Amino acid sequence: MTTTEPDCLFCKIAAGQVPAEIVRDGERVLAFRDINPQAPTHVLVIPREHHPDAASAAKAGSGLVDAIVSEAHAIAEDEGIAGTGYRLVFNTGSGAGQTVFHLHCHLLGGRGMEWPPG
Fold it and tell me: Which residues form the HIT domain (predicted)?
């Protein structure tokens, strides 16, 4: 698997080529605020390694999805929303709303979340 894709926006953010409001910067993952927030807390957690979606990362079996979820929880604690609840969203495919084809987890919180999601 290629670790980066030259035309991928999130690969460019991870490489420091495109600016973002960084929340956490780890060895395997990077977290930054969404530019179009859908909740008071809306952070994207991405791997530094390029995978097009959650399914491909899980199939690789490297524990990357676990690392992303663990990092998202740590951010929820830092943001003060872990106790009241938060939502993690992995969109897979354009039909599910994925627009950047680099695995990313949306951490959403700070307001009530409806079910089912829209």
Answer: 9-118
